[in-house]
Specification:
The complex is a heterodimer of chains A (380) and B (368). By secondary structure, chain A is an alpha/beta fold. Chain A is 20% helix and 28% strand. In chain A, strand 2 and strand 3 form a beta hairpin. Chain A starts with a strand and ends with a helix. The longest helix of chain B is centred in the middle third of the chain and has 13 residues. The chains are: A alpha/beta (380), B alpha/beta (368). Chains A and B meet through strand 16, strand 17, strand 18 and strand 21 of A and helix 9, strand 14, strand 15, strand 16 and strand 19 of B.
């Protein structure tokens, strides 16, 4: 079946810097925003952009992620001919090997892609929070007759050395890619969202696979190789909200951003819905003495205490005279009576006993509270 | 193993919620923040391992069909069996059946093709978080012809007036089914019988030109058949009038009631609509309320039930009210003792106050 463009979603990352949050799940499967998992944003972007063929490349701790994606039903990607496919590393006649890099993961699934004989291929990763219409990106890619289009956003020039920076001419044609440059020449940072002409990309993937010293990475190997051969690579400027939730601090910030009134990314946008699973919990119960401000609360929650500037996932209980502030409580967390939680992230199913006080230092990254480390955090 | 199939017979549930049932059948009326009345019976059936469910519906079933879809939300989208919504499209020229017997007669295929040998029949007005297997096991053990599921009501309310009462001996064998207003032993409208007996009674009723299966097939045969009762214990509600609809929504604002209905081993299932978590803005006052997802709260909500996607703007106040899906309450508006049907838009500064006993109902899609 011929397709104009199919999506390849990189979701194998471990997300080491997220610590306890990725102990048992891959980074794309980490809970986010009161109801979602991080990958829901990119999967929803795909379905909202009319990309109905999506290969999801998984590797690290895939159980929860695979179960979450399932046959793609929440995103309307449960389709007869195409839809979502989970592409895990596999054994073959040539032997066994893991995905050794982003480019290698695509290379090992060339046979999946070729089934659809696509003109273009969208390569995205499942660990970013943003809402983007890939159709507009694709139209831009076709209009500029590019071999590759890389979505970029402007970052403050003094922070540019933390990103992969694209140096472009006035018409946004890319002449140089610099990974974390010390003296950045531009403030256009790559967002890790690419559209390639499939035939071109395939030839580079085949070449790259033969190089023993390559790290098989799009940013480090494929893009520089294409630039070296003077191919037409263009930048596409995106000015919406985009966040890489790579660290605990940025994970917490991105969650708190959702409480911001003026955020351009909206979960309530009826024209650009973010889809996920719903476990059919009863509506949230807000008790007589409860006080809830500036928060996102999911169904199944029972709130009798005070919740301020926080995000509560499904089936969370906050008992009487407890105080939760600037915190993220994952599903099934139970907070007892007279508890104080400030700027903490409590992982799924943790029970916080009565009279517990856990606070993160104001300028430190938030503490992660789980069953395992709860004992060491208790100060009564 | 013996198993059950389910019938939800909506034939006798007409227009009992005034404005709320002008354009939909009672079974499809939204209840308790995110549900429709039928969700309770349907979820209980699924919980009881019933895999074949027929819905007998006579009219105003568009929103019901939209809600039920393929039955996937209840895991009833099955290759064999599953959910059958059966509207009244009957074209048999030799059909002489009347009343709800027409449903039974014209849908014999559902019973004949079904794998189960026993049938559980229910309406949609009885609200509980229930499981029917225990009643079914009792039915099999004592080889009853009919098992009526009943409940003991401590303080009888207006809503029970239209419910049948059951008189039984010490062994739980039913001796009479009456309208005795002082009897606290109330019939829930749910009963179990074998498929074979059901079809025989249907034939008998039709032969005698009867038009009400339960009255003529069962109630009048109480002395001829072995009719047993099984008492349901736990939270119950009969929603059969605007008054009881409102009161039972309000009752769920007490933690013990809400937990009794929802915090059981099994969740009440409903159609999922993918709304984001509810957003509370700065300086809101929300107390003793039930809120579904997708709401954006910027005002004051006290002792109320809010369905999905309700927007309460700054300075608006909602008190003792039921606000259905996607209503918008603009700033400064004041609502007390009201029921807003779906998509109602209350403009800035408006005030509506109903009586506690007779809440003010505003019909669907009105802008006021």
């Amino acid at each position: 079946m011929k397709k104009e463009c199919i999506g390849m979603l990189l979701a194998g990352g471990e997300g080491k810097r997220l610590g306890l949050l990725t102990k048992n799940v891959a980074k794309p499967a980490v809970h986010f925003g009161g109801k979602y998992r991080i990958i829901d944003f990119t999967l929803s972007n795909c379905t909202n952009s009319g990309i109905h063929t999506v290969g999801v490349l998984t590797q690290y701790a895939p159980l929860v992620l695979n179960k979450h994606i399932g046959i793609g039903k929440p995103w309307d990607l449960d389709r007869q001919q195409d839809g979502v496919s989970i592409l895990s590393p596999y054994t073959a006649q040539e032997g066994v090997s893991w995905y050794k890099g982003t480019a290698d993961a695509i290379y090992k699934n060339i046979h999946y892609i070729e089934q659809y004989d696509p003109e273009h291929i969208l390569v995205i990763s499942g660990d970013h929070i943003y809402q983007m219409n890939y159709k507009i990106l694709l139209d831009h890619h076709i209009k500029t007759e590019a071999d590759a289009t890389i979505s970029v956003m402007e970052v403050p020039i003094d922070e540019a050395s933390r990103f992969g920076i694209l140096n472009t001419s006035d018409d946004l044609r890319i002449y140089e890619f610099e990974e974390k440059p010390q003296n950045p020449k531009s403030n256009l940072a790559s967002m890790g969202i690419y559209i390639f002409n499939w035939k071109k990309l395939k030839s580079y993937l085949l070449q790259d696979a033969e190089l023993p010293d390559s790290s098989h990475d799009f940013g480090k190997d494929i893009i520089p190789a294409m630039l070296a051969d003077s191919h037409r690579l263009f930048a596409y400027r995106f000015d919406g909200y985009w966040k890489d939730v790579g660290t605990i601090q940025s994970y917490w910030e991105a969650n708190m951003d959702l409480l911001d009134e003026d955020l351009s990314l909206s979960l309530n946008n009826k024209n650009w819905r973010t889809y996920s699973h719903d476990s059919n919990y009863s509506p949230q119960f807000i008790d007589k003495d409860a006080n809830v401000n500036r928060s996102l609360i999911n169904s199944g929650c029972w709130i009798s205490g005070t919740v301020e500037h926080s995000i509560l996932f499904e089936n969370v209980t906050v008992r009487h005279d407890s105080f939760v502030r600037e915190s993220i409580l994952h599903p099934h967390v139970k907070v007892g009576n007279h508890v104080i939680l400030e700027k903490v992230i409590v992982v799924e199913g943790t029970e916080i006993p009565d009279h517990t006080v856990i606070r993160s230092e104001a300028n430190q990254e938030p503490l992660i509270v789980s069953k395992e480390n709860l004992g060491s955090l208790l100060t009564i | 193993m013996d198993s059950l199939m389910g019938v939800i017979n909506l034939d006798h549930e007409y227009d009992f919620l005034n404005e709320l049932t002008y354009f939909r059948c009672g079974a499809a009326v939204p209840f308790a923040g995110r549900y429709r009345l039928i969700d309770f019976t349907l979820s209980n059936m699924v919980k009881s391992n019933i895999q074949e469910v027929a819905i007998f519906t006579r009219n105003k079933y568009r929103s019901l069909m939209d809600h039920l879809g393929t039955g996937a939300s209840w895991e009833l989208d099955r290759r064999h069996g599953g959910l059958f919504v059966l509207p009244p499209d009957w074209n048999d020229p030799t059909d002489i059946s009347k009343g709800d017997l027409r449903h039974f007669h014209n849908n014999r295929d559902f019973f004949n093709r079904g794998k189960a040998d026993y049938v559980l029949i229910s309406g949609s007005q009885f609200i509980s978080n229930n499981e029917y297997q225990e009643a079914f096991q009792q039915h099999l053990e004592i080889e009853a012809d009919i098992t009526l599921i009943t409940t003991e009501i401590d303080s009888l309310q207006k809503e029970h007036e239209s419910c049948l009462r059951v008189e039984a001996n010490a062994d739980g064998q039913v001796t009479d089914i009456t309208n005795d207003k002082h009897n606290h032993h109330v019939f829930t409208g749910i009963y179990i019988l074998s498929k074979e007996l059901l079809l025989n009674l249907v034939d008998e009723c039709i032969a005698h030109h009867h038009g009400h299966f339960f009255f003529h097939g069962i109630k009048e045969n109480v002395n001829r058949l072995k009719v047993q009762c099984f008492e349901h214990k736990g939270y119950t509600a009969f929603v059969n009038s605007v008054e009881s609809y409102y009161r039972h929504n309000m009752n769920l604002l007490y933690e013990e009631n809400c937990k009794a209905l929802f915090n059981q081993d099994h969740r009440i299932r409903t159609k999922v609509s993918n709304e984001p978590p509810t957003k509370f803005r700065e300086q809101t006052m929300v107390t003793q309320s039930l809120l579904a997802n997708g709401c954006v709260i910027d005002g004051n909500v006290e002792h109320s039930v809010l369905f999905r996607g309700v927007h309460v703007q700054k300075g608006a106040t909602i008190k003792n009210s039921v606000i259905m899906q996607r209503c918008t309450i603009e700033s400064g508006a004041y609502l007390e003792n009201v029921i807003l049907d779906k998509d109602v838009h209350i403009t800035a500064g408006q005030t509506f106050i109903g009586a506690k006993e007779m809440p003010y109902v505003i019909a669907k899609r009105k802008t006021i």
